[in-house]
Amino acid sequence: MIVDCHAHVFRNWTESCGHPSTEIHLKYLQKIVTRPSAKVFRLRDGTPASAAPLFRKDDPTWEGLTDLAFRVGRYGQLQFTYEGEDYAVQYMPVGMQVIESPPEFMIAQMLVAEVDHCILQAGGGYGAMNDFNAFAQAQHPDRFSGLFWVDEATADREGTLAEIVRAKDKLGLKGLYYAQDHSRHGYARNLDHADFGPLWELIASMKVPVFAELSATPDYDRASYLANLEAFDRLLARMPDTTFVLVMGPPVGHLAPRGTWEFPAEALATYRRPNLLIEVMFPITWGGIWDYPYPEAQGLVREMRDLFGADKLVWGSDMPNVERFCTYKQSLDYVRRYCDFLSGSEKDRILGLNAAELMGLR
Predict the structure, then answer these.
(1) 85 pairs with which residues across the strands?
(2) What's the confidence (pLDDT) of residue 167?
(3) In the chain, pLDDT over 70 holds for what percent of residues?
(4) Residue 355 phi, psi (nearest 5)
(5) 28 vs 70: CA distance, rounded Å
(6) 186 inside domain
(7) 3-state secondary structure at position 357
(8) The domain containing residue 294 runs over which residues?
(9) What is the pLDDT of residue 362?
(10) Span 298-307, mean pLDDT?
(11) Chain centroid to CA 6: how far?
């Protein structure tokens, strides 16, 4: 059984996508692409460009986002206008003429790639997709397990906690997606702050997994990432009976700058926590630099297997986003076909069984 632990369904991005307004949705999207791994270019001639005009370097919060008529274009592009010129970030694949991902689209992709089940992650950029994830799950329970998402930095408010209860008890969603980047509201409180105690008590009582994506904010450097990992470690220690998944896995740029993992002892201890699984997912961030079948990624997978064991690793793709760099099938096959150092039972674990057990799939 092949289980993709990181896929998305979402509505047309020209809409508010469940947020209170289209403007808020666009702010989430603009923040995501201030430092993209995706290609940025001038629209009229394809000249390579930078996303730097989209933000002020002295302010990593939403207040630092610049007003450049940021907008959702066609053909997978997020566009902006700077000094009279139009630019694009190729955030989604070119073949996505309209940026949307209905359940039927994902099922068609799964059939070709031979993926049996997808865990639907969430997040502000994709929209407030609790109802849409629940719709996909209800229509195709054999294909999808949906996660819920809320505005993380407001998770000490009654309304936010009530939405979590609704998502779990009424919509039947299977776990929490939590993005550690609080840029919308500033960085005064990290995920382990005492104010968020009620959130984590509620999640623990629900007995659902948490898919946590850590950032390197506020300074986008190694020190910021390690500080956020330290806060995450404190949360893992407080919640030993809750299973967490480290979305995107460890950051290559900060922790494998020379092609092999260079984990500080404290980071290695966090990654080895028994209630943590680690996502194996490299093409979405490095597919624009490395060529398929990604021998660089294969080497990092080998080291992760050696350090942590196959029982701690879960494969994810970030579909449909990953197709800006490779096909869905290739995002799987660099592990399935080319990581020949993995035994058959290890591949079974990484490519499906670990995630299936986590989500209670049969």
Answers:
(1) 82
(2) 98
(3) 100
(4) -70, -40
(5) 11
(6) yes
(7) helix
(8) 3-10+100-359
(9) 75
(10) 98
(11) 7
Terminal CA-to-CA distance of the chain, rounded, Å? Answer: 9
pTM equals 0.97
d(C-alpha 172, C-alpha 334), whole Å: 33
Exposure string over 260-280, b if 16+ CB within 10 A, otherwise e: ebebeeebeebbebeebbbbb
pLDDT digits (tens, 9 = 90+) for 175-186: 999 999 899 999
DSSP one-letter string for 28-65:
HHHHHTTS-SS-EEETTT--B--SGGGB-TT--SGGGB
Mean pLDDT of the chain: 97
Contact, 211 vs 247, CB < 8 A? yes
Place of tokens 């959702």: 72
The answer to whether the CB of 68 falls within 8 A of the CB of 54 is: yes
The predicted structure's pLDDT at residue 100: 98
130 with 76, same domain?
Answer: no
pLDDT at 319 over 90: yes
Residue 331's identity, in one-letter code, is S
> Which single residue is written with the structure tokens 């994810």?
316
Tell me the pairing of strands 77-82 and 85-90.
antiparallel
CA distance 297 to 257: 13
CB atoms within 10 A of CB 114: 12
Determine the average pLDDT of the residues in 134-150. 98
CATH code at position 276: 3.20.20.140
Closest CA to 54 of 38, 70, 42: 70
Residues 69 and 203 both lie in one domain: no
pLDDT of residue 316: 98
How many residues comprise the chain? 362
Residue 210: Cβ within 10 Å count: 23
